[in-house]
């Protein structure tokens, strides 16, 4: 697979869908490659902090998202939210693995809101791979990212 071509994203995603997902290492490489590629498309003129996110759904398809900022700052959206929206729009329902990447000193953690958004569609043991563009990685589970998560079960009396 040639990731060096000018627009590698379609190639990366095609490879992901085509079956690289069968092997764990390859899956992780593919998710990282997809998150790295989509990060380049981030619209972040205000923070200048570009973030890319890639989700492998339980059906094996890779969905990507990047942060999209707005001059009305609170209207911006995170990379993880974009990837989740793409997953749902594509007809997938559940997250098998997440990869997030940014040019940060330490592996970039999803913000609080994105932790809750990920938890909506992922089991507690799902891996979230936090990455820097320098190559550092930290792997956490959804449970570790959001202990005490609010779930539908908390509304059982309504
Ligand atoms: N950002 C994300 O896209 N994901 C995160 O989990 C952390 C923050 C974006 C939002 C905003 O566009 C920029 O990074 C700075 O906060």
Automatic annotation (TrEMBL):
Cofactor names: Zn(2+)
Residues bound to Zn(2+): 78, 111, 114
The keyword Zinc belongs to this UniProt entry's keyword annotation: yes
Magnesium as UniProt keyword: no
Gene3D superfamilies to which the protein is assigned, alphabetical: Cytidine Deaminase, domain 2
A GO MF term: identical protein binding
Pfam family, one: dCMP_cyt_deam_1
Domain spans labelled CMP/dCMP-type deaminase: 26-153
Reaction it catalyzes: 2'-deoxycytidine + H2O + H(+) = 2'-deoxyuridine + NH4(+); cytidine + H2O + H(+) = uridine + NH4(+)
GO biological process, one term: nucleobase-containing small molecule metabolic process
Enzyme class, first EC level, given as a word: hydrolase
PROSITE patterns referenced in this protein's UniProt entry, alphabetically: CYT_DCMP_DEAMINASES_1, CYT_DCMP_DEAMINASES_2
Keywords, sorted A to Z: Hydrolase, Metal-binding, Zinc
Binding-site positions, substrate: 67-73
Active-site residue numbers: 80 (proton donor)
Physiological role: This enzyme scavenges exogenous and endogenous cytidine and 2'-deoxycytidine for UMP synthesis.
Family of the protein in this entry: Belongs to the cytidine and deoxycytidylate deaminase family.
Protein name as catalogued: Cytidine deaminase
Organism: Paragemmobacter aquarius
């Amino acid at each position: 697979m040639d990731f060096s071509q000018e627009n590698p994203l379609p190639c990366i995603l095609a490879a992901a869908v085509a079956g690289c997902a069968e092997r764990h290492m390859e899956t992780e490489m593919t998710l990282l490659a997809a998150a790295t590629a989509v990060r380049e498309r981030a619209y972040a003129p205000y923070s200048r902090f570009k973030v890319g996110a890639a989700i492998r759904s339980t059906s094996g398809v890779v969905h990507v998202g990047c942060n999209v900022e707005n001059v009305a700052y609170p209207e911006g959206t995170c990379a993880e939210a974009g990837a989740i929206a793409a997953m749902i729009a594509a007809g997938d329902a559940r997250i098998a693995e997440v990869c997030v990447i940014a040019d940060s000193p330490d592996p970039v953690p999803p913000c609080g809101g994105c932790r809750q958004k990920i938890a909506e569609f992922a089991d507690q043991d799902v891996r979230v791979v936090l990455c820097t563009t320098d190559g550092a990685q930290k792997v956490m589970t959804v449970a570790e990212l959001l202990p005490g998560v609010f779930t539908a079960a908390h509304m059982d009396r309504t």
